[in-house]
Amino acid sequence: MKKRYIATWLLTFALAGCREEFLTVIPETALSYGIFFKTESDFQQAVNAAYVPFRQMFNERAWVLEEMHSDNTYYARNTLYGAVDPTENVADFAVPTAGGVTANDNVLVQYRLNYQIIARANQILALIDGVDFAEASKNNLKGQALFLRAFAYFDLVRLFGKVPLHLVPVVGREDAASPLAATEEIYAQIEKDAKEAGALLPNKAKQEAGRATSGAAKTVLANLYITQKKWALAEPILKDVITNDGYSLMPEYANAFSTTTANKNNAESVFEIQYMEGSAGYNGNQIYRFIPSPISATEIAPITGTSNPQATSQESNNIPTPDLIAAYEAGDKRKDASIGYVTLSGSLAENKVYPYIKKYAKTHSLHNNTGQNWPVYRYAEVLLFMAETLNEQGKPAEAAIYLNQVRTRAGLAATKATSQATMREAIFKERRVELAFENKRWFDLTRTGRVKEIIGAYGAKVKANPQAYYFPKGAVPPPNAFTVLDDYYGLPAVEAALTPHF
């Protein structure tokens, strides 16, 4: 199958100003729904556009809200640069929230990007059945739109609990302000969309690389059931993915992740965000957002491999914590594949050696321009989902079969857990190291009800020994650090100003 990158198509859907059709004149030079959505090609372009917000989301915001807002990574102070409060507050569990809303910019942008996906999917789903073209292609495009809407709502409901539920295109200001839907209502819609997407989409072998597949839709559905603790519903879905969808673990953990130009959408990939190095505008720059700073050109050169390495002095985001580093067992191959170390000669910290996320440090050509894909769901997580699902139904021995597949690839011995309780903890710990830096930890803490327990203890350690968490000598966390231990973020204050509903 010919491999193409999902292109960026910026669609502007103009609204007609008059209701009487004979008074409505649509300029032929304007791209609008009055002249668009007439052909298969139009819907292909519209589906491409629905993927586009993912690139910004996973490059800039998702890791802030879903990984650095945990005990896996932290915001390492670079006092030469100064704090970037919205990001620092997320890492410090000190997001200012009042009346259920927050002005934090990371929250606002993530919220809006998800609704961009939803709005574009809604437009496709509202019109695609009214246009005649090949059924197989229509099912594929419709399935992708349903998957994207389900995925976006799943992210929103796990971040906020309750959000507006838009299922048809918004045609005016009156429609834009929608009441908050109950969490269970949103779950029900995600379930409906993911089920339908799974039935319509082709599997990995038949789908164009990089697009949603039936396996990806079923994995979202299983994740939803696991979040709801509907274990008996999750099991057959996961069994179907494992048995019928053609995924397998890459022999080496390090090779489960793409380079900047190759190994994309490999045998282990269930769904990943597509990036392309170069000048076309499809690139990312995650490693530059994560790299400890201040770093000299000489220090950054071995990490990025570019021909034009440049020094940076910025905030230091997503730095692996001592807690995560200690979670790896001796001999675990995943540790060296995931975490590297760099000495920052210009750092004001006494210990100038910093860990960084090696998983995304792939050699590339130009400074601040990378092309490695971002893993969203991997087959390893499917196996861990199955282990958890079986264990929660009182089958720890069966769960061990799936858990041990992941451990064997990591170079570790079989788990010693035998009871449901010990197996539960073993799976929880395995998820942490297997899926480190893939935006899973925060959701694992919330769905298991362990935020206050784990983040409370983690915060106490940070405050007791700031230098161990990358603070320069004499610097300490702010007074409000680790005071907001809620399972959900406040809704965006900017959006709250536009609606009477929150």
TrEMBL record:
Against Gene3D superfamilies, the record matches this protein to:
1.25.40.390
Q: Name the source's superkingdom.
A: Bacteria
What are the alphabetically sorted keywords of the record? Cell outer membrane, Membrane, Signal
Query: Boundaries of each RagB/SusD domain copy?
Result: 347-477
Q: Which PROSITE patterns match?
A: PROKAR_LIPOPROTEIN
The SusD-like N-terminal domain extends over: 38-225
Q: Where in the cell is it found?
A: Cell outer membrane
One Pfam family recorded for the sequence: SusD-like_3
Show the GO cellular component annotation of the record.
cell outer membrane
The record's similarity note reads: Belongs to the SusD family.
Query: What is the protein named?
Result: RagB/SusD family nutrient uptake outer membrane protein
* Origin species: Dyadobacter chenwenxiniae
Q: What is the lineage of its organism?
A: Bacteria, Pseudomonadati, Bacteroidota, Cytophagia, Cytophagales
